[in-house]
Sequence to fold (137 residues):
Amino acid sequence: MSRIKLFRIISIAIMILIFWFSHQNGEESLKQSNFILQYLKEFLDIFNLGIRKLAHFTIYLILGSSYFLSFKSLDKKSVIISITLTFLYACTDEFHQGFVPGRGPALKDVFIDTLGGCLGIVLIFLFFNSNKKPIIK
Fold:
């Protein structure tokens, strides 16, 4: 299986996982977050909101990276398309949450999600282009 097909499959799998998380009603989502929170509080004493936002950032970092790695050419055009796809999926995810009991859309989550995706995309772009000409002339 080629790298491109593999990362397209991973992108779709992550999108399904995000959809499943977003489809949980507020009580189920809070219960799941509280399970993770209890586990992490024992070791790190982190607050619930921080964990949820970090989860948003991290899963979209992985999604954005996966989008980018699914392109044949890892160039600037692929960066722009990958960031756009990450942003659009974050928007649709928040829209979806507007229909789930106990959940609601939040513009700040779109920002956090997109920022996570951008970081993953840029880090991979820089890694693959580190031996080439400078990015900015």
Notes: The CA atoms of residues 87 and 128 lie 23 Å apart.
